[in-house]
Design a protein that fits this description.
The complex is a heterodimer of chains A (247) and B (817). With 247 residues, chain A is an alpha/beta fold. Chain A has nine helices and ten strands. Chain B is built from 26 helices and 24 strands. The chains are: A alpha/beta (247), B alpha+beta (817).
């Protein structure tokens, strides 16, 4: 299957609603790292479905495999075994270019350290994934402006990241993740580099996005922030030990 | 203060030792540049600066007579007398005439280079014998004693350096000369002389046409306060007077004064001087490229040391204190590079000496000794210190100049795409590429010019030709028929040797560095259109088979053959250029031409053949100069005889057999200048070869260093931008996007550098115009091809860093947490 087919099936899957196939389905996913002939099982037999509109947090102690799971979900890494279907389509074995294309269109990343590019303005940072999509300048402008307005950063569009506070930088990072209207937002410890006030503000922003219909999968080791999600998946030693819905 | 400096030195040494790879690369780059500068300066020092065994050389000038304002000739007694009587610019004037002597009675007959000199010649040069005495005024009078001075090497060779040589006699040209003195070691003016005898001429008693004959070297010492330009102006004024007084002899002739040092280099057109200046410019450019390279390395290290330097500032170090520390480090590095450079120069200098660009033959011991003396060492030290400051200053100011300490401390060594100092890296690499571009264009122009010169049609086939010179003794061959008989017998014997295809003689072999013979000509029924014109041709007197032997190309008519003997109608074979000048647009066959010389009447010669132009004249190698070939038997002369032999195999292997054949005709005949024609030609383009080799090596080094510099900057940039690239890939960037990002950055720098370099090269190559042959200083082929070369090399230099960027794992975006 190629990515063009994946995009073409978007409408069909979306129309299936919550009762249909999940947005993401991991079946028996394993990840093994080989270091000096020593096998490290980072993930073992992960079965996970994420449906459209869900807000899932993945929690667990350091080294339990949270980031590995997120990198597989974000097509930054490939599983050693099992299958990964995004919108009903198998994506584990796509080529480099196809994975880049799917990442660009279906997934929005929010990183712990924001990962804004210092040489680019706020506007250009948010615009970056859209330029890789080959979108026209006017379309890009409309989407970027909309995303920046949603996170309340439109007034800082011309600033450089170094001119913003940490909280503001993370809001810009959220705008960048949102701008391309991805199928799912993947957030990796989005409050890890923020003080509690700014952390809370970012969590509220994610909450608002969820309320607006966004599908979010967030990795966190902070129980307080995990509780913002509808559903929390607990990992321990590379296995899901608990998967519960919020009360 | 010195305690602090010592602390800086120790700390700098520790820092350099801590990064051996960085230190090694920087020292190697600096050594290359300082070594190249030192080596080329050693050549400049030897050729232009180092003292020679002549007193106050910077006051000594040489007079040249110029035909039609450009074609240089030696002087005559006419000019010598006029200067002696009318000039006020000189303290003293001396004259010498090159000669050669058959030395007999001391082993095998030997041809010795020598000179007849006026008594004032040595005093003008400021040279005195180391043993014995110089010539007295009386000895220099006509009929004076037969006395001689000998060179130091002659003294060593023939008398074992024994002081009793003074007073001994020499049999020169069958006349006995008493040795009165030994000249200092290395002194051999004029023209590598080994023996000097008095000139013994009373100018007033010399017939006018002989007084006006060229063949004298006039040297003069400028009066204090008189500049070369002033003396030259006065000399030209005297030449104008001579022109009016002797119009039949001097119409169309003027004079020019050049520094004696320039003349000794054989650099009459000033090309050696210009070439050396261009080369110094070239190595200077290489130095700039190296400095930019090392400055980039320093800057990159400075960015990596942001936290350390911020900490030092936090602890109270002033900006100037940090600058001093960083400059100490760069100076230490430069000193290491300087030591490496000197070692490299020590190795390069003999190579440079081997391709020595000088055309001159005098003072060879001095001009071929490119050794590294005190002046070169001081130059190397200055270059080293200047280099240390040049490449160290910007990084030091930049690294020590951050205003805010805390952000640097907080940021520490965290990688950032927009790290401070990155802009300077780009500026330096653009400058480096621009300088490399200029250097490459200069080098390419020199190489193209040299290539053109090398492929100039000589008009004959130089392969498998052996040449040698025979100067017939006047006492033995006083009559021309004797000389003709000698030539005939030698040619006949040599022609019959196994391995010889043909043989002939000429009075000058093409492009030789000896006195060559020219003739002013007159065309029957066609006086010169401009009375100021002095129509001149190379005058070659040749045996019947000479033209066939050297392989000229006959265009029409026939070549000289055995029937063209004395007593037969005078004939001549002319070159195309002479035909064009004498009978433009007309068929010259059957037309008549003759030599013109005041006081003498030469017969009309009928043109029997026209050949393709032959390069006969070394000085006028770049142009086609008229030449005629006249049967040796038909013109009375006492010119040297050059035997030219075409062989079926290696010409050098027949040397012994040919010597034996000559000695079978005359056992006392001396033979000199034995060499193949290709060996002779190898000495023709020495200046151009020197420039082309050096400039191309410099340009290639510049290109390599610029490519390494660009590679370094790009590799550094990729390493700084790894996280950014990971983030971009995580956001959906494909290989093409990453490729465009990195290669685009490299391409931008390369294109910008190339564009600036093009403009700079266009401006600077104007200065090379006089050194180029048949290549325009703004030759579009050179400019375009060098631009493409530089851009290609630039992109190749970016390729490895780009490959690294393409392999960046997007997971890095998560791992950076």
């Amino acid at each position: 299957m190629n990515s063009t087919e994946l995009i073409a099936t978007e409408q069909t899957n979306a129309s299936n609603g919550n009762g249909a196939a999940p947005l993401i389905r991991l079946s028996g996913v394993t990840k093994v790292f080989l270091t000096d002939e020593v096998e490290t099982h980072a993930l073992s037999g992960i079965h996970l479905d994420i449906r459209e509109g869900e807000y899932v947090s993945i929690a667990g102690p350091s080294g339990c495999g949270k980031t590995t799971l997120l990198s597989i979900l974000g097509l930054l890494d490939t599983p050693s075994g099992g299958s990964y279907a995004l919108k009903g389509n198998e994506v584990a074995n796509l080529s480099f270019a196809e994975r880049a294309r799917v990442r660009n269109r279906e997934i929005g990343f929010i990183f712990q350290s924001f990962n804004l590019i210092g040489d680019l303005s706020v506007f250009e940072n948010v615009e970056l994934p859209l330029t890789y999509r080959g979108m026209s300048a006017s379309d890009r402008k409309a989407l970027v402006t909309e995303a920046l307005e949603r996170v309340g950063m439109a007034h800082r569009a011309k600033h450089l990241p170094s001119q913003l506070s940490g909280g503001q930088q993370q809001r810009v990072a959220v705008a960048r993740a949102l701008a391309g209207r991805p199928a799912i937002l993947l957030a990796d410890e989005p409050t890890g580099n923020l003080d509690s006030r700014n952390g809370e503000a970012v969590m509220n922003l994610l909450g608002e996005l969820h309320q607006g219909g966004a599908t979010i999968c967030m990795v966190t080791h902070d129980e307080r922030f995990a509780q913002h999600a509808d559903r929390t998946v607990h990992l321990f030693d590379g296995r899901i030990v608990e998967d519960r819905m919020a009360a | 203060m010195f305690g602090g400096l010592w602390q800086d030195v120790r700390y700098g040494a520790r820092i350099l030792l801590k990064s051996p790879a960085y230190t090694a690369i920087a020292v190697a780059v600096l050594a290359l540049s300082i070594g190249a500068n030192t080596a080329v300066f050693s050549a400049v020092n030897t050729l232009l600066l180092r003292p020679l065994p002549l007193k106050d050389l910077d006051r000594l000038v040489l007079n040249q007579v110029l035909r039609e304002g450009f074609d240089p000739y030696e002087s005559s007694l006419l000019e010598l007398q006029a200067f002696q009587q009318r000039s006020h610019s000189f303290v003293s004037i001396g004259a010498a005439r090159q000669r050669s002597f058959n030395l007999i009675g001391r082993g095998e007959p030997e041809r010795i280079r020598g000179a007849s000199i006026a008594a004032d010649y040595l005093t003008t040069l400021g040279v005195k014998p180391i043993l014995g005495r110089s010539f007295s005024g009386q000895e220099d009078q006509p009929g004076g004693a037969a006395v001689a001075l000998i060179s130091y090497s002659f003294w060593q060779k023939h008398f074992g350096g024994n002081a009793s040589a003074v007073g001994e006699t020499l049999n020169l040209e069958r006349r006995s000369y008493t040795i009165v003195g030994v000249m200092p070691q290395g002194f051999d003016l004029p023209a590598a002389a080994d023996i000097w005898v008095p000139l013994q001429v009373n100018i007033d008693s010399v017939p006018l046409n002989e007084r006006a004959a060229f063949g004298y070297e006039i040297v003069a010492r400028l009066r204090p306060g008189i500049s070369l330009e002033q003396a030259d102006a006065e000399s030209k004024s005297i030449a104008r007077q001579l022109e009016q007084e002797f119009p039949q002899l001097r119409r169309g002739w003027t004079v020019t004064l050049i520094w004696l040092r320039q003349a000794l280099l054989g650099d009459y057109a000033g090309r050696v001087n210009k070439a050396l200046v261009a080369l110094m410019g070239g190595v200077g450019f290489l130095l700039l490229i190296c400095c930019a390279n090392v400055a980039n390395l320093q800057l990159a290290r400075g960015i990596g040391r942001t936290r350390e330097l911020a900490l030092r500032r936090a602890l109270g170090a002033s900006r100037s204190r940090l600058v001093r520390q960083l400059l100490t480090e760069s100076t230490l590095l430069a000193l290491l590079g300087g030591i490496g450079g000197l070692l490299l120069a020590h190795w390069i200098v003999p190579l440079l000496a081997a391709i020595n660009p000088i055309q001159g033959i005098s003072l060879a011991d001095y001009f071929r000794n490119f050794n590294i003396d005190g002046r070169v060492l001081i130059f190397a030290l200055c270059v080293t210190l200047a280099t240390g400051i040049l490449f160290g200053l910007v990084p030091a100011l930049k690294s020590a100049g951050e205003r805010e300490v805390m952000p640097s401390l907080r940021q520490g060594d965290q990688h950032s795409a927009s790290a401070p100092g990155h802009g300077w890296l780009n500026i330096l690499i653009v400058a480096e590429i621009a300088v490399a571009m200029t250097l490459l264009v200069g080098g390419a122009l020199f190489v193209r010019s040299f290539n053109r010169l090398q492929h100039v049609d000589l008009g004959f086939r130089p392969d498998r030709l052996l040449t040698l010179k025979m100067i017939l003794q006047e006492s033995k061959y006083s009559e021309h028929r004797q000389r003709v008989a000698f030539v005939d017998q030698v040619v006949e014997r040599v022609k019959n040797l196994p391995g010889v295809l043909s043989a002939g003689t000429t009075t000058n072999i093409p492009l030789e560095r000896e006195i060559t013979y020219d003739a002013v000509f007159s065309v029957e029924g066609r006086p010169p259109p401009n009375p100021k014109d002095v129509p001149i041709t190379a005058n070659r007197l040749v045996s019947p088979d000479y033209l066939k032997t050297v392989g000229v190309t006959l265009i029409k008519g026939r070549l000289i053959n055995e029937t063209d003997r004395a007593g037969r109608p005078p004939i001549v074979v002319i070159s195309e250029e002479l035909a064009r000048q004498a009978w433009p647009g007309k068929d010259p066959l059957g037309k008549r031409i003759k030599r013109v010389r005041p006081g003498q009447d030469f017969p009309w010669m009928t043109v029997i053949g026209v050949i393709k132009d032959v390069k006969e004249d070394l000085f006028n190698y770049r142009i086609n100069r008229p030449v005629w070939y006249v049967p040796y038997a038909q013109v009375e002369n006492n010119f040297p005889v050059n035997l030219v032999v075409r062989t079926s195999g290696d010409p050098a292997s027949l040397t012994t057999a040919i010597r034996e054949a000559i000695h079978a005709v005359d056992p006392d005949q001396s033979i000199s200048n034995v060499m193949t024609m290709n060996e002779n030609l190898a000495r023709v383009l020495v200046t151009e070869r020197f420039s082309a080799i050096l400039m191309s090596v410099l340009a290639a080094s510049g290109l390599l260093l610029a490519a390494l510099g660009l590679y370094g900057v790009m590799a550094y940039s990729v390493s700084r931008r790894t996280t950014e690239i990971g983030v971009r890939v995580a956001l959906g960037a494909r290989r093409l996007h990453v490729l465009r990002l990195i290669l685009g950055q490299g391409a931008k720098l390369t294109l910008l550098g190339t564009a600036i370099g093009l403009a700079a090269a266009w401006g600077l190559t104007r200065l090379l115009v006089s050194l180029l042959f048949e290549v325009n200083a703004s030759d579009p082929v050179t400019f375009v091809s060098i631009s493409l070369l530089l851009i290609s090399v630039g992109l190749i230099a970016c390729f490895l860093p780009t490959r690294r960027a393409l392999s960046v794992d997007p997971m890095i975006a998560l791992r950076a947490e």
